Amino acid sequence: MFNWLQQIADWLVYDVLNLDQKQHLAEALNFFIYDTVKILILLVIVIFFMGIVNSYFPIDKVKNYLSRKKLYGLEYLMASLFGVVTPFCSCSSVPLFIGFVRGGIPLGVTFAFLITSPLVNEVAIGLFIGLFGIKTTIIYIISGVLLGTISGIILQNLNLERYLTPWVKDVLTNAKKEQDIFQAEKQPFTKRLPVIWTEVVNILKGIIPYVIVGIAIGGFMHGYIPEGFFEKFMAKDNLFAVPLATILSIPMYSNASGILPIVQVLVSKGIPLGTAIAFMMGVVGLSLPEAMLLKKVMTFKLIAIFFSVVTLCIIISGYLFNIIL
Q: Is residue 298 classed as helix, strand or coil in its secondary structure?
């Protein structure tokens, strides 16, 4: 989908700036250019699309529908399954998360998507089958979907909406005002577009600094943290290897496809599969750059609660993997 963008990033870093591909600086800079532009493009597309949807299906109606209908938790499962078919890393999922929040989707449901999207996707599934076989892959997919679903339900029941930032509340207020105007005047589609685009620009202005800082942190980690740095904490005889692997992986940042070859190396060196997968889930499901991006929409307390709940679920999943496999 973004191969053309990767080619531009390669051209800028390796041809224009003449940096060696083996240099840490080149790897970090390439990552920064590619991910920053990609996330900004996603933000424009998602926010603009959600603006169109919201102009015809007001936030209140979406909220009322989801609260009135008894879906018995299926909304969380559906959000997790939607995450499976969207091949985004943790940072790239944030634009969709913001779009969901702006569209009035309950916070727990948006969390279910945010958790599952980076963990399980078709590329990672294909690699997983090749590296670990079908049985392990099926268990991994089910555990990834359940992780998002259960975490979403837990987070929804904690009633965390009050910990969204004032910026989000202003965005929701503006969206409500736009909807009232659209509904009252029954404006045609062409007249709605300039209003929707203005709101897209306003949201981008607010979030761009967080995108740049978050991806800069991710680029540094991507380029400079040595791959074998964490292996000493995952020894088979260490009872606390799973929580250590999960917690220490959070500062790192990669997508599932990028981290799977490392997981294979860890397993080949005798690291238990559950511990290695917990490490992988921590890297792709939670990251410091993701926290920086979420800082625009969540208070520190909400980010801490979100990371704590998902970390706990990953640790439990890691121990279960070690027992089953």
A: strand
Of 73, 72, 97, 71, the residue nearest 83 (C-alpha): 97
Spatial contact of 285 and 89, defined as CB atoms under 8 Å apart: no
Q: Identify whether the C-beta of residue 101 lies closer than 8 Å to the C-beta of residue 110.
A: yes
Joined tokens for residue 202 = 């306003």
Q: What is the pLDDT of residues 49-73, one digit of tens each?
A: 777 776 776 656 656 666 566 667 7
Question: CB of 120 within 8 A of CB of 87?
Answer: no
What are the structure tokens assigned to 304, written together? 């801490």
d(CA 20, CA 22): 5
CA–chain centroid gap for 63, Å, is 23
Angle at 74 between CA 70 and CA 76, to 5 degrees: 115
Per-residue CA distances from 213 to 32, 34, 36, 118, 208 (Å): 10, 14, 10, 20, 9
Q: Please give the model's pTM, rounded to 2 decimal places.
A: 0.72
Which residue spans within the chain are E strands per DSSP? none
DSSP β-bridge partners for residue 268: none
Question: What single letter denotes the amino acid at residue 215?
Answer: I
Rounded Cα distance, 300 and 164, in Å: 10
Q: 128-158 pLDDT, tens per residue?
A: 787 788 888 888 888 889 988 998 999 888 8
Extended beta strands in 173-244, E state: none
Residue 325 CA to residue 315 CA, distance in Å, equals 15
